[in-house]
Amino acid sequence: MFPNTYKSIHFLLNALLSVIADKVVALLYLEKGTETRGNIIKDTFNQLLKKHYKTWKQPAQYASELTVSVSHLMIQ
């Protein structure tokens, strides 16, 4: 085979592996379901709200506990 043929085969194999890796990552993401960072923050915030709604009046208290900024908390 010629050197250009090896380069072409190498390029095509890399492209194929990239497509396969993307599909595997997508499948793993779907298996996890709703376990995204945003959903984790939302669920934890709701738990904190139920526990501390009488005493914690400032959004900064919740944001600090969730280790996010107040503006990020407001977006969620």
Q: What does this entry look like structurally?
A:
- The protein has helices at 3-32, 37-52, 59-66, 70-75.
- The protein is rod-shaped and about 75 Å long.
- The model has no long low-confidence stretch (mean pLDDT 82).
- It is 79% helix and 0% strand.
- With 76 residues, it is mainly α.
Which features does this protein show?
76 residues; mainly alpha; 2 domains; 4 helices; rod-shaped
Whole-number count of domains? 2
Could you state the order of secondary-structure elements as H and E?
A: HHHH
Major β-sheet annotation:
none
Q: Please provide the count of β strands.
A: 0
The value of Rg in angstroms is: 23 Å
Q: How much is the average pLDDT?
A: 82
Report how far apart the termini are: 57 Å
Envelope shape:
rod-shaped
Characterize this entry briefly.
This protein has 2 domains: 1-33; 34-76. The chain is built from 4 helices and no strands. It has helices at 3-32, 37-52, 59-66, 70-75.
Set out the fold topology.
Layout: H1 3-32, H2 37-52, H3 59-66, H4 70-75
